[in-house]
Amino acid sequence: MIFGNALIGLREGLEAGLVVSILVAFLVKTDRRFALKSVWLGVTLAVVLSAGFGWLITFTSHEMTFEQQETFGGAMSLIAVAFVTAMIFWMRATARTIAAELRGKLTDALKIGPFAVALMAFLTVGREGLETAVFFYAATQSAGSGTSQPLIGFLVGIAVAVVLAFALYKGALRINLGKFFTITGALLIFVAAGVLAYGLHDLQEGGVLPGLHTLAFDLSGPMPEDSWYGALLKGVFNYSAQTTVLQAIAWIVYIAVVLPLFLRKRKAPVKKQEQPAPAAA
């Protein structure tokens, strides 16, 4: 699970890092350093909220029965898939305009006051943090108890994201963000498909969905999950040696629908041509 979690940490961390770097750079270049404290206050509160939310859902699940834990874990996995899917499409659509949008919002917030600036930074970064907390919980559930791989993956991804964001802010590194988010988005679709399948399996074990013992395939013999290749597939695609029919159908349908929609080329907006003025008589 290290690769998939590192990918999530990298994406979410870089998005949050880009947001913070855009806000800070705008304030520095426009000689409004007095508002930096408000931005960092909002960012700090967003990080604290995200960490607290992650702890809350983890602690809450420990107080449940087995069926309740499976149902709760399955529901959180589906929410995580919805968050990630929305995130990759949102960033694909706004990668080129996000800087201008953030500068406009920050300009409006500066007119209101420090509280508005802190609130804007809090809401912008907090959304990424909540998505990360939900996906981290779902990844922890799918990896099983007693393993630190999800945490290691997330920390590695976030650490790389912080370094990249700082290098971008200082101008020491230039990245084609459009291609970067396209490549990582395509990989995340496969990660999300695995989380979707595992979430449905949790709901089957919780008795919410039927078909727990109706298997599409059983590869426990030729490709066990504890083998190096099984562990690799599980870490990247959340592979399960015993996959139910519902899981297999959901995985295939998700990939078949979401991946082509994400990779299709967007049509450039057609500019309206101005009508020539009528010739003077």
TrEMBL record:
<feature type="transmembrane region" description="Helical">
    <location>
        <begin position="6"/>
        <end position="27"/>
    </location>
</feature>
<dbReference type="GO" id="GO:0033573">
    <property type="term" value="C:high-affinity iron permease complex"/>
</dbReference>
<keyword id="KW-1133">Transmembrane helix</keyword>
<feature type="transmembrane region" description="Helical">
    <location>
        <begin position="112"/>
        <end position="139"/>
    </location>
</feature>
<feature type="transmembrane region" description="Helical">
    <location>
        <begin position="71"/>
        <end position="91"/>
    </location>
</feature>
<keyword id="KW-0472">Membrane</keyword>
<feature type="transmembrane region" description="Helical">
    <location>
        <begin position="151"/>
        <end position="169"/>
    </location>
</feature>
<comment type="similarity">
    <text>Belongs to the oxidase-dependent Fe transporter (OFeT) (TC 9.A.10.1) family.</text>
</comment>
<keyword id="KW-0812">Transmembrane</keyword>
<feature type="transmembrane region" description="Helical">
    <location>
        <begin position="245"/>
        <end position="263"/>
    </location>
</feature>
<dbReference type="InterPro" id="IPR004923">
    <property type="entry name" value="FTR1/Fip1/EfeU"/>
</dbReference>
<dbReference type="GO" id="GO:0015093">
    <property type="term" value="F:ferrous iron transmembrane transporter activity"/>
</dbReference>
<protein>
    <submittedName>
        <fullName>High-affinity iron transporter</fullName>
    </submittedName>
</protein>
<feature type="transmembrane region" description="Helical">
    <location>
        <begin position="39"/>
        <end position="59"/>
    </location>
</feature>
<feature type="transmembrane region" description="Helical">
    <location>
        <begin position="181"/>
        <end position="200"/>
    </location>
</feature>
<dbReference type="Pfam" id="PF03239">
    <property type="entry name" value="FTR1"/>
</dbReference>
